[in-house]
Amino acid sequence: MSTRRINKPWGWEEIIEKNDKYVVKRLFMKEGEQCSLQYHEDKKETIIVLQGSLKIKLGQNGKSRHDKILNQQGTVTIKPCEVHRMIGVTDCIYIECSTPELDDVIRLEDNYGRA
Length: 115
Hints:
Largest sheet: 6 strands, antiparallel
Radius of gyration: 13 Å
CATH superfamily: Jelly Rolls
Oligomer: single chain
Number of strands: 11
Helix content: under 10%
Order of helices and strands: EEEEEEEEEEE
Shape: globular
């Protein structure tokens, strides 16, 4: 599979590998931007920061959330149904390794008007 870049309002993502067992993406989050506050019913993902600093809001739906700051080489695993949002503290490049359910996104809030 060739790498495919998908522009997003907060930066971009590149799908490096997608198969029926896992997906690997490289993402760029602009400083001060953020993805949707979201969760996945089935998808499990691990984030690895390569460059910059990324804040991740984590928590259960309807319960308090906490912030985790990831710097270079920082990692976190996000389980199914765990509410999360990534925020660029600085321009940031990170890897997302996940199960293959790319369409499994339930958005709770979005700064860019996406449903």
